[in-house]
């Protein structure tokens, strides 16, 4: 109770601190670019471009300027501590990472890359650790259920990463080289431009490191990743557009196990699309895509190979009716384990399809706006599922919008949870998770800054979790309550982003009723502050999280942590710049997960902490715009 009271007081204090600023706002008009950065267009929340204050959802946008300033070595470093986002890792540099969005499971959200879903069909989770952040120019985090738009797994929300579209004009090259601690080396190059209605962007990157230990007194665990990206599009005179995307990452990561143990991986998305304006008000788009997730694990005592593919056909139609908008479409997706095998054993089922139709109406009766959506899924394994949402927004005045929403979602059990071919590791009797969420929010949007406050409650039935024997079972009921405060500002040459998260993810049934869901922190703060000083830029990030428990019974407590990262940039000549980062400046030990090993003397399982890398410095040289 003391922890909850302190968190509530902290959230209230943060909110009250913003009120005097809101009163003084009288915000003068900012320039267009600044206004777009503080109130950016978001496409993930409603399948159509809407400014952040129009989406009727809790959204966070990390734009190109943010990615360039921070220049993170991993996507997880970029997302860590953002509103409602919690990340656990089993070490640094390519080690297994899990993302929890609003307290839901690591496979209860959707990762999209330019609209293409990427995950392992076996686990249902995305391999965040194998994505190179230099391949992307933007990230959108939409929190809250989006099952009525994206189908299964969108319980906690959706994260979408966007690749560059290609800039207009003559070819523009960009090159960067750098390195730093742990014998790390980073290289990247790209070429972008347009000609005669055709845009193109081609890029490649290489990351390699000796790595750092993932446990006390352990050996360094290395990682390498080679990524390539091609994106092309052509716009015809009648405004029709066709395009293609191909993104591929391949490499390896050493992990903790007796002897030399390595995960070889391949992550790939590929898609083609055609978009045609059928009338002045009606646009239609067809997308065909395939996502691949492959993992080849080699260790002295075992080996495994998983090759999964998800093939998808999507048809979207957008109809503009004055201030109103209707989106309707259909989707067919097929998960295929292909040649996946584990030690010569095969899954009982290795393929399933999902068919869906959906519709959304966005009705603008200013100052009242309404968003209604409905989706019907027909899953080969679990039959039919209907999800929907209703959101209402009301403009209190020129600067403030209040919102309220209700949404449902579901998560179908994964192939591993149902059919993993080791005795006692799967459960073919699992039921699908279902959930419902109620949310209230208030946003203040001014010329030079904004704030967004949201409170929500999610009820999950038949939550899929691991029991004491690490077998997946249904937990009859879980409840997640939370509140988030996000703030952003750009004043003169200062840029500020702040996020405060409070959450209470509780198991409400069975032997662990009243316990916190495993590996979730309940309080978090992230503060990013940057300053432009002519040709120089300086900045830093402070990320704080409280303790968490590694197990469902809350017997294994992992300490909280706070880390400080610093960065600097110098534009020393036209088209040339240097960037330096110093991560974990105070050399704090960060533990967000535990492992276990068998003790042959005591015949017991002995837990150990997975630790992240300590203080690390990196320097890079960049050429290009």
Task: Sum up the structure in keywords.
625 residues, mainly beta, Maltoporin, Chain A, 22-stranded antiparallel beta barrel, 8% helix, 57% strand, receptor, Plug_dom_sf
Q: What's the quick description here?
A:
Residues 53-158 form the TonB-dependent receptor plug domain. By secondary structure, the protein is mainly β. Helix content is 8%, strand content 57%.
Helix/strand structural class:
mainly beta
Termini gap: 52 Å
- Envelope shape: globular
Rounded radius of gyration (Å):
24 Å
Strand content: over 45%
Query: Structurally, how many domains make up the residues?
Result: 1
The number of distinct helices, counting runs of at least 4 residues, comes to 6
Q: How many strands, what sense, and barrel or not for the largest sheet? A: 22 strands, antiparallel, barrel
CATH class categorisation: Mainly Beta
Poorly predicted runs are 1-30
CATH architecture descriptor text = Beta Barrel
**Strand segment tally:** 36
CATH superfamily: TonB-dependent receptor, beta-barrel domain
| Percentage of residues in helical conformation | under 10%
Question: What would you say this structure looks like, in words?
Answer:
The protein is mostly beta strands. The protein has a single domain (2-623), classed as TonB-dependent receptor, beta-barrel domain (Maltoporin, Chain A). It contains 6 helices and 36 strands. The strands form 6 sheets. The protein has a 22-stranded antiparallel beta barrel. The chain has a 5-stranded mixed β-sheet with strand order 3-8-9-6-7. A two-stranded antiparallel sheet has the order 1-2. Strand 12 and strand 13 (221-235) form a beta hairpin. It is globular and about 75 Å long.
């Amino acid at each position: 109770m003391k922890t909850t009271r302190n968190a509530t007081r902290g959230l209230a204090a943060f909110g009250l601190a913003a009120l005097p600023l809101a009163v003084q706002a009288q915000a003068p008009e900012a320039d267009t670019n600044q206004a777009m950065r503080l109130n950016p267009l978001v496409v993930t929340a409603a399948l159509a471009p809407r400014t952040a204050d129009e989406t009727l959802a809790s959204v966070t946008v990390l734009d190109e300027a943010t990615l360039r300033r921070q220049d993170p070595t991993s996507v997880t470093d970029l997302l860590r501590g953002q509103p409602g986002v919690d990340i656990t890792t089993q070490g640094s540099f390519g080690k297994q990472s899990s993302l929890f969005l609003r307290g839901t499971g690591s496979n209860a959200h959707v990762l999209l890359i330019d609209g293409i879903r990427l995950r392992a069909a076996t686990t249902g989770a995305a391999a965040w650790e194998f994505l190179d952040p230099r391949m992307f120019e933007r990230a959108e985090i939409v929190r809250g259920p989006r099952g009525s738009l994206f189908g299964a797994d969108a319980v906690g929300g959706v994260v979408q990463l966007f690749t560059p579209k290609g800039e207009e004009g003559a070819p523009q090259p960009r090159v960067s080289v750098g390195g730093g601690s742990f014998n790390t080396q980073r290289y990247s190059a790209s070429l972008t431009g347009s000609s005669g209605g055709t845009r193109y962007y081609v890029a490649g990157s290489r990351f390699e490191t000796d790595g750092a230990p993932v446990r006390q007194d352990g050996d360094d665990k290395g990682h390498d990743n080679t990524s390539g990206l091609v994106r092309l599009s052509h716009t015809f005179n009648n405004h029709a557009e066709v395009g293609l995307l191909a993104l591929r990452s391949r490499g390896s990561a050493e992990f903790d196990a007796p002897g030399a143990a390595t995960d070889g991986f391949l992550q790939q998305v590929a898609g083609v699309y055609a978009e045609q304006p059928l009338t002045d008000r009606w646009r239609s788009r067809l997308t065909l895509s395939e996502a691949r997730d492959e993992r080849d694990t080699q260790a002295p005592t075992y080996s495994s190979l998983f090759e999964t593919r998800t093939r998808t056909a999507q048809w979207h139609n957008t109809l503009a009716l004055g201030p109103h908008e209707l989106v309707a479409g259909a989707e067919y997706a097929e998960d295929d384990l292909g040649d996946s095998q584990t030690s010569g054993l095969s899954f009982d089922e290795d393929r399933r399809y999902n068919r869906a139709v959906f519709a959304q109406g966005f009705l603008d009766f200013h100052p009242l706006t309404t968003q209604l959506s409905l989706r019907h899924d027909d899953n080969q394994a679990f039959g039919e599922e209907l999800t929907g949402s209703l959101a209402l927004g009301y403009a209190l005045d020129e600067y403030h919008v209040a919102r309220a929403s209700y949404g449902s979602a579901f998560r179908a059990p994964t192939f591993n949870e149902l059919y993993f071919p080791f005795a006692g590791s799967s459960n073919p009797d699992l039921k699908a998770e279902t959930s419902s969420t109620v949310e209230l929010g208030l946003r203040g949007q001014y010329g030079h800054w904004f704030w967004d406050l949201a409170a929500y409650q999610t009820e999950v039935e038949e939550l899929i979790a691991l029991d004491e024997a690490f077998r997946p079972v249904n937990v009859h009921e879980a409840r997640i309550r939370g509140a988030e405060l996000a703030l952003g500002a750009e004043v003169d040459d200062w840029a500020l982003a702040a996020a405060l998260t409070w959450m209470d993810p509780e198991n409400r049934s069975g032997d662990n009723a009243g316990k916190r869901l495993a590996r979730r922190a309940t309080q978090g703060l992230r503060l990013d502050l940057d300053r432009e000083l002519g040709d120089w830029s300086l900045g830093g990030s402070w990320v704080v999280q409280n303790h968490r428990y590694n197990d469902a019974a809350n017997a294994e407590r992992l300490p909280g942590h706070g880390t400080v990262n610093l960065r600097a940039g110098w534009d020393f000549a036209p088209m040339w710049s240097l960037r330096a980062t110093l991560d974990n400046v105070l050399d704090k030990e960060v533990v967000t997960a535990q492992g276990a090993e068998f003790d042959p003397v005591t015949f017991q399982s002995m837990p150990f902490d997975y630790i992240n890398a300590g203080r690390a410095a990196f320097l890079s040289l960049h050429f290009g715009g």
